[in-house]
Amino acid sequence: MIAPACRHEQKKRHGRDRKGNQRFRCALCGKTWIEDRPRPLGNMRIPMDKAVLCLRLLLEGNSIRSVERITGTHRDTIMRLAVLIGERCQRFLEKSIQDVPVNEVQADEIWGFVGCKKKTQKKRGYGEGVGDAYCYTAIERHTKLLLAWHLGKRTLENTHQFAAKLDRATIGRFHLTTDGYKPYRIAMWAALRTRIDFAQLLKVYGPVKGNQAAVRYSPGNIISTKMYPVAGCPDESKVCTSHAERHNLTIRMQVRRMTRLTNAFSKKWENHEAALALFFAYYNFCRVHSTIKTTPAVAAGLTDHTWGVRELLEAMAATQS
Q1: Which residues pair with 135 in a beta bridge?
Q2: Structure confidence at residue 23 (pLDDT)
Q3: By percentage, how much of the chain surpasses pLDDT 90?
Q4: Rounded to 5 degrees, what are φ and ψ at 62?
Q5: From residue 235, how far is each of 100, 167, 230, 232, 249 by CA, in Å?
Q6: Cα(111)–Cα(94) distance, rounded to whole angstroms?
Q7: Is the model's pLDDT at 308 over the cut of 70?
Q8: How far is CA 315 from the centre of its chain?
């Protein structure tokens, strides 16, 4: 092996630095260096095995404090680890999911909040970093691959940003279905134009009978559905949002911050975004989907095997710029 510091071929180990990195010394000229290799955990000194365990527990819906009790790792360390890996997951997904051939895509948004709900945000005059936080998602119907996602307010501007991400993630013409949210009509046409056969599915719900809690948190019975063609020539038999809505349930079950009626909600926007990015990377590459019996990334041809969390961390470290 040629030494990067002096271009000689004779080297030997020369102890470690204060962060535990292996040092080397050239046997001919005496120059020393540290081997340049990917660092899956950045500058964090937590052991890799414990970091993987903490992340796996978070990905299975455990809270920060429950992971602290199980692993003996301080909650601040767990939070820093989750934010670091979550931010890397966000960049990794943007780089790895580009120009993917797709057939049928369904898009939807799932509600959450940061710090407080919208009513309290307006009442107390808080800024945009708290309040309602909608996560837009788009999945391929057959491979279950999460193609694009975006966290933001439920506005036209954020819908445009989500549509632009979907445009970068896909290639070719495909069938697209969304719910009846009106900004989709403008945003999807502006970003995708002639690449989509686009229709919106509007579900009409009936009243919910029962106590106040049931009326507030349970959806009504679907009375009817209405299909509205928007662009191209959508096939009525393919107009469906059920798979995207079922994926919303998976998000609520797996991401602790999305659990209703608890105090597990995010207190900072960046923490909420990092938690979602971590789960989406895990969902695509590591989590075997019960319907297709493999991971969405394998089904879509992005990889040839199911990844473990450690392999995901190493892949993200290797792609860091």
Answers
A1: 110, 151
A2: 84
A3: 75
A4: -80, 150
A5: 21, 21, 12, 10, 26
A6: 22
A7: yes
A8: 16
What 3-state class would DSSP assign to 255? Answer: coil
Task: Between 297 and 2, name the one with better pLDDT.
Answer: 297
Residue type, 302: L
3-state SS assignment for residue 303? coil
In this model, does residue 199 exceed pLDDT 90? yes
Paired tokens of 99: 């120009």
* pTM given for the model: 0.86
- The set of residues, in sequence order, having a beta carbon less than 8 Å from that of 47 and lying 6+ positions away, is none
> Hey, what are 254's tokens?
């797996």
Confidence of residue 60 (pLDDT cuts 50, 70, 90): very high
Average pLDDT over residues 229-253: 95
Q: What is the DSSP string of 132-192?
A: EEEEEEEEETTT--EEEEEEE-SSHHHHHHHHHHHHHHEES-EEEEE-S-THHHHHHHHHH
Is residue 51 within 8 Å of residue 31, measured between CB atoms? no
Neighbours of 254 (CB within 10 A): 17
Is 35 in a helix, a strand, or coil?
A: coil
What is the SS3 assignment for 27?
coil
60, two tokens:
């299975």
pLDDT of residue 191: 96
pLDDT tens digit sequence for 126-142: 998 999 999 999 999 99
Residue at token pair 């923490």: 271
Query: At 94, which amino acid appears?
Result: E
The structure tokens listed for 2 are 């040629």
Largest CA distance in the chain: 84
Q: Which two tokens stand for residue 111?
A: 């509600």
Q: Is 1 exposed, middle or buried (0-12, 13-18, 19+ CB in 10 A)?
A: exposed
User: φ and ψ at 190, to 5 degrees?
Assistant: -65, -35
Which element (helix H / strand E) includes 95? Answer: helix 75-96
34: left (phi over 0), alpha (psi -120 to 50) or beta: beta
Say yes or no to pLDDT of 12 above 90. no
Identity of residue 88:
R
